[in-house]
Design brief:
With 409 residues, this protein is α/β, with parallel strands linked by helices. It has two domains: 210 residues, Uncharacterised protein PF07075, DUF1343 (Rossmann fold, 3-Layer(aba) Sandwich), CATH 3.40.50.12170; 121 residues, Alpha-Beta Complex (Aspartate Aminotransferase, domain 1), CATH 3.90.1150. Helix content is 31%, strand content 15%. The chain has twelve helices and twelve strands. The strands form three sheets. It has a seven-stranded mixed beta sheet, sandwiched between helices. Strands 10-12-11 form a three-stranded antiparallel beta sheet. It has a two-stranded antiparallel sheet with strand order 7-8. Helix 11 runs antiparallel to helix 12.
């Protein structure tokens, strides 16, 4: 069956044939740009920003230039740079691990030790920084507060400041765009490895911009340099950059999943599968106690812009509800420009609370949400409009502060 026909059939199941025509309307995307990431700019400039420096590189499999050559290989080969240490984040140096703790390793190319920042320590130690005068960070983020690469960078910045080590960020585009800022701001005092700093769920910043904010507002007093991306515009999604997509983690396998993640990822601390153990994590949710058609009917009746909901049944191969048949929904993003992942995630939450008050377990709902007022509003049965009004003041305050650290138009 042709892809277009299958898409129409799925939407017919969810919303009726009349809506299929509307959902398939598309606006022509602009031609892809020739975007240069921080490592591309550094290479073009003959690594002069790191000339004579003893470098510790924090990176993983996403640290690649336009041609797909790793930042590790490029810095190792640069005659004016002395690469002396490597550091890796959650999921490991190759980005393939999905475990609670990762040990140190050895890089075959350079022979250097890879210090895990997701093991016994989640920040560079004094021992691992011996002989390092500059830490370089080059990892692709996805634009969501609880994606832990942000925390790895923040912890490394703090360690660098404490040990008088220079910090250089090789910036990369925010793949879900840098214009939209959405969701509740993390409560002060709720900081954790899945919430490094009080910011909204969808922060709308690049890692370089976040580094500027952390350095100023956390008063690191760090010698920070951001090597900016060239050719990227704030409103651009990843597919407008001309860059090659690399899955940044084992369960982040597409731009669609990255766009859904700020809203759907919020729910995975509850007794709900978010598709881990399937081919499409974050594009589906489900549980054995969900009646799929009822949930899809309720969600579609909310008439959320840019998304429709298809009832499904699935059995994850791994993770939550492994090999158990789950009822649930498949998220179909019909218009990315209008789609709001936070509004979608909140709508799912209030609908689950209404339909399954005794089945949906919410004791850990606030772990990623990290905003008690919002959590309490969901549990109290408030509408999405009321919930969003409750966190709007904090969101606007963040947007105002954020403007001082933005690099790109």
């Amino acid at each position: 069956m042709a892809r277009r026909t299958m898409f129409a059939l799925l939407l017919t199941l969810a919303v009726g044939s009349e809506s299929v025509v509307q959902a398939e309307e598309r606006v022509e995307a602009p031609a892809p740009l020739n975007v240069l990431t921080g490592i591309d700019v550094l290479q073009r400039d003959d690594f002069r920003q790191l000339a004579g420096r003893n470098v510790g590189l924090i990176t993983n499999h996403t640290g690649l230039n336009q041609a797909g050559v790793s930042t590790v290989e490029l810095l190792h080969a640069a005659k004016q740079v002395n690469l002396v240490a490597l550091f890796s984040p959650e999921h490991g140096f190759a980005g393939k691990l999905d475990t609670a703790k990762i040990g140190d390793a050895r890089d075959q190319l350079t022979g250097l030790k890879i210090h895990s920042l997701y093991g016994e320590s989640r920040a560079p130690t004094a021992e691992s920084l011996q002989g390092v005068d500059t830490l370089v960070f080059d990892i692709q983020d996805i634009g969501t507060r609880f994606y832990t690469y942000i925390s790895t960078m923040g912890n490394a910045m703090k360690a660098a400041a404490e040990h008088n080590v220079r910090f250089v960020v090789l910036d990369r585009p925010n793949p879900i765009g840098g214009s939209e800022v959405q969701g509740p701001v993390l409560d002060v005092g709720s900081e954790s490895f899945v919430g490094f700093y009080p910011m909204p769920v969808r922060h709308g910043m690049t890692i370089g911009e976040l580094a500027r904010m952390f350095n100023a507002e956390l008063k690191f007093d760090l010698q920070l340099e951001v090597i900016a991306v060239e050719g990227w515009r704030r409103a651009d999604f990843f597919d407008a950059t001309g860059l090659v997509w690399t899955n940044p983690s084992p369960n982040m396998r597409s731009l669609t999943q990255a766009h859904l993640y700020p809203g759907i990822g919020l729910l995975e601390t509850t007794n709900l599968s978010v598709g881990r153990g399937t081919d499409t994590p974050f594009e589906v949710i489900g549980a054995p106690w969900i009646e799929p058609r009822s949930l899809a009917r309720e969600l579609n009746s909310a008439s959320l812009a840019g998304v429709r909901f298809v009832p499904i049944r699935f059995a994850p191969d791994d993770s939550k509800f492994k090999e158990e048949l789950c009822g649930g929904i498949n998220f179909i993003v019909t218009n990315r420009d209008n789609f709001d992942p936070l509004a979608t995630g909140l709508t799912v939450a209030v609908t689950l609370r209404r339909l399954y008050p005794n089945d949906w377990e919410t004791a850990s709902l606030n772990r990623l949400l990290a905003n008690v007022e919002t959590r309490d509003a969901i549990l109290a049965g408030k509408s999405v409009t009321e919930i969003r009004e409750g966190y709007e003041a904090g969101l606007q305050s963040f947007k105002s502060r954020r403007s001082a650290y933005l690099i790109y138009d």
